[in-house]
Amino acid sequence: MINLSHYETAGCDFVLCYRFPDQWYQSNEQTITRRRIRKMIFMKFSSIFTLMLLSFSSLMQLTCGSIQAAKKPNILFLFADDQRADTIRAHGNSQIQTPHIDKIVKQGFSFRNNYCFGSNSGAVCIPSRAMVHSGKIWMHSNSQLIGEVTLGETLRKQGYATFATGKWHNGGAAILRSFEQGKNVFMGGMCDHTKVPVSEIKDGKLINRGTGNQFSSVLFADAAVEFLKDRKPEQPFFAYVAFSAPHDPRNPPEKYREMYYNNRPTLPENFLPQHPFNNGSLVIRDEVLAGWPRQPDVINDQLCEYYGLITQMDDQIGRILEALEQTGEADNTIIVYAADHGLALGSHGLLGKQSVYEHSMKSPLIFSGPGIPQGKQTEAFSYLFDIYPTLCALTGIQGPAGLEGHDLSSIWKGEKDQVRESVFLPYLNIQRSVRDQRWKLIVYPNINHSQLFDLENDPHEKKNLVQNPKYASQLQKMQVLLKDWQRNIGDTQSLSVENPKPMQIDLSKVKRKPDRHQPQWIIKKYFD
Fold first, then answer.
1. Mean local confidence (pLDDT), 209-230
2. Can you give the pLDDT at residue 48?
3. Torsion of CA 309, 365, 180, 70, to 10 degrees
4. Which whole-number Å values give the CA distances from 527 to 201, 238, 518, 524, in the listed order?
5. Distance (Å, rounded) from C-alpha 401 to C-alpha 154?
6. Is 511 exposed, middle or buried (0-12, 13-18, 19+ CB in 10 A)?
7. Vertex 247 angle, CA 191 and 268, to 5°
8. How far is CA 440 from CA 270, 489, 490, 509, 524, in A?
9. What is the pLDDT of residue 66?
10. Calpha distance 361→426 (Å, rounded)
11. Helices 296-327 and 99-106 meet at what angle, rounded to 10?
12. For residue 191, what are the contacts with CB-CB under 8 A and spacing of at least 6?
């Protein structure tokens, strides 16, 4: 046998020359020279070594492929403005056309009890968006995100290419910290959808680019599609696309409003001509977009226009999803679809979002992408500020200290049934609400008035049970829960006052004036 205990290296790397016992060099009467033996062994081991190199090369290729496959997932965040939770066809509204949002629903996981955590402003979108990007409630953060580590900042520090387009309502400093790229960015709260002032993020600066030459949703989709086509494929991306639709002015392109004029949706089940009492926000900009008492035909027209904005936005979402497919990265991209809050649009005699009713505080929230169940949903409670920690968990990134949201992926993974047992909704100093899976309490401190709803049997909040003695114990339980929430988050708002304001208000003499963003055809139709 070959004696492998004795060897010497030749002058070149990896070449082994072996020594053999003397008796091995005799074969019958023929003498085999040492040189011939070494040549034979060298050729044998060269073949083995070549095979080893080929195997190593294949292993390296597999390893490199695994590293490439393990690249952090991309994130495409599609964010609507003022979209009620009940305006998605795949979620049960057969009167609206939303085929591309429906696709996200069918490929993802929907949170059907998703909420905006109230507001400290009548412009609810400002604190709502601040909560999304800070991961904190508005009472513990600020609308300009001063001192906050935003979602974009966190992803940017982890090597993500961060891009923004659309509405940003939380200050120039915060958007520049969050996104290294941006195009067709709208720095404001609302505008005529056909006259959008846009800016660009370039070299760490916001550059004014004048007024866009397309409808808002088209402008923002154009920018998103361009980014997806031109990005660096080796770098994961976070693309934030914040539509200003379906926020008013409700002026969709004509074909989109005509499609609903010709096939009209029904009024909300809880439609009222006027809210039954003064909730503290009855005479504000949103509410003067139609007169009092609300006329069914007027509200129906506005509902058609609202639906038209959603369907037109949906078509642009389709363009973005198609561009994502063309990148070849769709299977490695997390898609988040959400809206900043809902809207009344006739419900309870209201038009805006300045209330804590379900129609105004609930909004869509859908996740789709790698590892996320398809076509599933939950009734578990979620808040918009849960998006931040959920994306951190899905990307394997450690979020900053102080995030107040929860990782919602624990629900679809089956690790938890819920991340919270109840929801608290504070609006300014004029409304406080709490709900669990069945019951909801709303308190109006300035008029010493309360409402108790059995959402299991009254999902549209039409029958107030506060005065019914049958539900006295349930009312007391909800009052305790409301105070527990206040104590836990440091909300010092009193739930009653010594000198309450009158509950009733005469709206017949209110003079309505259009804001400067309403186009002429809307002014003529609803104000003249």
1. 98
2. 47
3. -130
4. 38, 42, 10, 6
5. 11
6. exposed
7. 150
8. 16, 19, 21, 33, 40
9. 37
10. 10
11. 60
12. 197, 216, 244, 517
Task: For residue 170, give both structure tokens.
Answer: 């939380």
Radius of gyration of the chain (CA): 31
Query: pLDDT class for 71, splitting at 50, 70, 90?
Result: confident
Q: Assign 37 a pLDDT band (cuts: 50, 70, 90).
A: very low
Give 403-442 pLDDT, tens digit per residue: 999 999 999 999 999 999 999 999 999 999 999 999 999 9
Question: How confident is residue 142, by pLDDT bands cut at 50, 70 and 90?
Answer: very high
Q: What is the pLDDT of residues 469-480, one digit of tens each?
A: 999 999 999 999
According to DSSP, the β-strands at 74-80 and 30-31 are unpaired
Mean per-residue pLDDT over the chain, rounded: 90
50 CB burial (10 A radius; 0-12, 13-18, 19+): exposed
Statement: residue 28 has pLDDT above 70: no
Chain centroid, CA 81 distance in Å: 11
How far is Cα 35 from Cα 83, in angstroms, rounded to an integer?
86
Distances (CA, A) of 438 to 344, 459, 461, 466: 21, 9, 12, 15
Are 91 and 112 in contact by the 8 Å Cβ rule? The answer is yes
pLDDT at 186 over 90: yes
Q: Alpha carbon of 228 to those of 21, 73, 154, 161, 164: distances in Å?
A: 70, 14, 21, 11, 12
165's tokens:
């387009």
> Is the torsion defined by CA of 321, 323, 326, 330 positive or negative?
negative
Tokens 């039409």 sit on residue: 462
Q: Does the CA dihedral 469-470-471-477 come out positive or negative?
A: positive
Residue 45, SS3? helix
User: What span, in angstroms and rounded, lies between the C-alpha atoms of 241 and 257?
Assistant: 23
Cis ω before 293 (30° cut-off from 0) = yes
Structure tokens of 242?
Answer: 């914040």
Rounded-to-integer distance, Cα 314 and Cα 397, Å: 31
Residue at token pair 């107030």: 464
Q: Using CA atoms, how far apart are residues 76 and 335, in angstroms rounded to an integer?
A: 5
Is 144 exposed, middle or buried (CB count within 10 Å of its CB: 0-12, 13-18, 19+)? middle
- CA 345 – CA 247 distance, rounded (Å): 11
Distances (CA, A) of 230 to 226, 317, 356: 6, 18, 42
Per-residue confidence band for 43, with pLDDT thresholds at 50, 70 and 90: low
Who's near 20: CB < 8 A, 6+ residues apart? 2, 3, 34, 37
Fill in the amino acid letter for 356: V
pTM of this structure: 0.87
End-to-end distance of the chain based on CA atoms, in angstroms?
A: 108
Going by the DSSP 8-state scheme, the letter that residue 504 receives in this structure is: -
